[in-house]
User: What shape does this take?
Amino acid sequence: MSRAGPPASISLPQALAQRLIDTARGAGDYEICGFLGQSDDASQPPSLYPVGNLACSPHYRFDMDPVEQIAAFKTMRQRGEALLAIYHSHPDAPAEPSSFDLAGHSYPEAIALIISPSALGRAQLRAWVLDAQRATPLPLHIEPLDDKRGPTIAGKLL
Ligand SMILES: [Zn+2]
Assistant: This one.
């Protein structure tokens, strides 16, 4: 799917949102990161593509493993998906973009999804459009659990 810019909102199945929060929480003070891919068929939930974090200070920032990044994009292409979002976590900070996030967001057409597993005493998941050093919050809808399709990870249903 080709897009001129990011969509006006993002919708995630609850199981996928919960999976991101659980993974971020399980990583302790480490930032997790990866991609969400979306097929042309809007009835399909986004696919999850976890990517390793190679940053020297992985609890302050993320630096995606380039090999895993290329592999994720390849799988996305094979599945006819486009890059929907780049996600990462803030183990100790709210789910708001840092100056590093603004400067380092290399795909302006992709949504920045930030997971804060417990910084505010509860899990927080927020979506942002990062453009020209500016962060704009994007409405994020969590679809209820009665959606039985479940999230997919790199093509495999969880
Ligand atoms: Zn960040």
The helical segments are 14-26, 66-78, 99-104. The mean pLDDT is 85. Residues 10-157 form a domain with the Cytidine Deaminase; domain 2 fold (CATH 3.40.140.10). The first strand starts at residue 10 and ends at 13.
